[in-house]
Design a protein that fits this description.
Layout (H helix, E strand, L loop, with lengths): L2 H4 L20 H9 L10 H8 L25 H13 L10 E5 L6 H14 L3 E6 L7 H4 L4 H10 L3 H13 L8 H19 L8 E5 L21 H17 L6 E6 L3 H7 L12 E2 H4 L3 H19 L8 H11 L3 H11 L7 H10 L10 H11 L5 H14 L11 H8 L7 H6 L42
Parallel strand pairs: 1-4, 1-5, 2-3, 3-4
Length: about 475
């Protein structure tokens, strides 16, 4: 049983494993190290810039060579959301004595967050309103993109290239604090970013010091393990390092001399919901942008599919009648607003399989045709990764399957309410078993908290439908 047939609600896809090694700085960063000469810096002029360059994750920057095949928005798609975010970067929330400089962009797995952030970063860079970017990636060969260790140095490195006076301030800070790279990221942010910004802003105007810091995929950051777990020390959880990054950014945004607006894009995992949705933090953050609730992506997905099918028709000399409007609509419906499903299908059709594109499309549409490969193998891998974040993945899958069956009851026109799910599935009515079991799976299934369950419907999409297995799946033998 394919996982995508159980939960056809994907996450961001891992590019092919062809990216650079973890030990090198990419050519763009290396060239910058060679060409940028700090001015008016304390002794050992070349040393601080080289020292900083050795600590960065060059592949995490939006225009790095490692991100050469990163997803970007198809032309004429996701226009509204990009415009809204760009307007917030340039204009904020309007006149305010205490501007809120952090905005959370969230949405289900695979809804296109990274593509939007990448396209937005390019737009900001072209218009001179980009401060820095960092794209975390759990699939990257570079440990700097998977962990927090290179996060602040990479931000500082981009600011060094931003303008001359800021470069001088940051490089002097490195000379005065040679051990800063061994400090925690709170100290690094203060020494390498905030203190230099204060120095520059206080002695000059803010012209040129504005725009965006775009941080994508914080939910993919893995925890750094400082202790030997075999000696009884607890293993550090990913959520702990993710929260530390969020707290560092929150502290930076509250500094009156910090001139940038911060966009943080992630899946709606628990650590992010608890921080951004907390009533106590409502004054610190701009209104969040939920891609699944505020934008309908169906029209954009259709544009993407039509453009890709045009390429296939020209390549294989196929008739204009292929594919049929019904086939395109079926793919739009199956995508359920998640670009990654449509992108995965089109990538499968473009991979040069033995079968012709017409047969491959038929297989992707109904998954009944016997093929030499799995059309949605990437999605199975992604769903496995997400489901394994549950404390009991097997039980989580069973619950999700049962919730899907409950949707078929005519009693629930819009699907079962969260109260009904708790009543029918929890073994202990007084426990919060739903949050414990599914709390880390909000990118696949969303159930309102106990305080808001009455009348609220369990939300997930698309349909979760078990089908016969065509490939290995860790839990398939025990799933009904």
């Amino acid at each position: 049983m394919y996982i995508h047939q159980l939960i056809q609600h994907p996450t961001r896809h891992p590019p092919d494993a062809k990216h650079g090694s973890s030990s090198r700085v990419n050519d763009g960063a290396t060239n910058a190290l060679k060409t940028v000469q700090p001015g008016n810096v304390a002794p050992f002029e070349a040393d601080p810039l080289e020292k900083l360059g050795r600590r960065i994750a060059a592949g995490a920057i939006h225009d790095s060579d490692e991100r050469c095949d990163a997803p970007k928005c198809q032309p004429e798609t996701r226009v509204a959301v990009q415009d809204d975010l760009y307007d917030w970067i340039t204009d904020g929330d309007g006149p305010s004595e205490h501007p809120r400089k952090i905005k959370w962009v969230t949405g289900p797995a695979g809804c296109g967050k990274s593509a939007i952030m990448g396209s937005l970063a390019d737009r900001c860079a072209a218009n001179g309103v980009l401060g820095a970017t960092f794209f975390f990636a759990s699939w990257s060969a570079s440990i700097g993109r998977r962990q927090k260790t290179a996060f602040v140095p990479t931000i500082a490195y981009q600011l060094v290239l931003h303008r001359q006076d800021l470069r001088t301030a940051i490089l002097n800070a490195i000379v005065k604090n040679p051990g800063v790279f061994g400090k925690n990221i709170h100290v690094q942010m203060e020494v390498l970013v905030l203190a230099p910004l204060r120095e520059v802003v206080q002695r000059s105007d803010r012209s040129g010091l504005r725009g965006a810091m775009i941080i994508d995929g914080v939910d993919e950051c893995e925890a750094v393990q400082y202790h030997d777990a075999t000696r009884g020390r607890p293993v550090r959880m990913n959520a702990e390092d993710q929260l530390e990054i969020l707290q560092v950014l929150q502290a930076a945004s509250s500094d009156p001399y910090f001139p940038f607006r911060i966009l943080i894009a992630s899946r709606p995992e628990r650590v992010f919901r608890e921080l951004f949705d907390s009533e106590g933090n409502s004054a610190s953050f701009a209104q969040k942008l939920d891609l699944s609730e505020q934008y309908n992506a169906d029209a954009d997905i259709r544009l993407f599919l039509e453009a890709q099918f045009n390429i296939l028709r020209r390549r294989y000399n196929l008739p204009l009648s292929w594919p049929s409007p019904r086939a395109i609509q079926t793919l739009v419906d199956k995508s359920s607003g998640q670009f990654i499903y449509a992108a995965t299908v089109m990538r499968f059709l473009n991979t040069g399989q033995r079968e012709p594109p017409t047969a491959l499309l038929e297989a992707a549409l109904n998954l009944k045709t016997q093929l030499t490969s799995n059309p949605l193998e990437q999605l199975d891998t992604l769903y496995t990764h997400i489901l394994e974040s549950s404390p009991d993945p097997l039980l989580s899958v069973r619950w999700i399957l049962m919730i899907n069956q409950l949707k078929n009851f005519t009693h629930w026109v819009r699907g079962p309410s969260a109260f009904d799910v708790n009543l029918l599935l929890q073994t202990d009515p007084k426990s919060d078993e739903v949050e414990h079991l599914l709390g880390n799976l909000h990118s696949l299934i969303k159930i309102p908290p106990p305080s808001a369950q009455t009348g609220n419907v369990v939300q997930f999409s698309p349909q979760i439908t078990p089908r016969p297995s065509r490939g290995p799946w860790p839990w398939r033998e025990t799933v009904p």
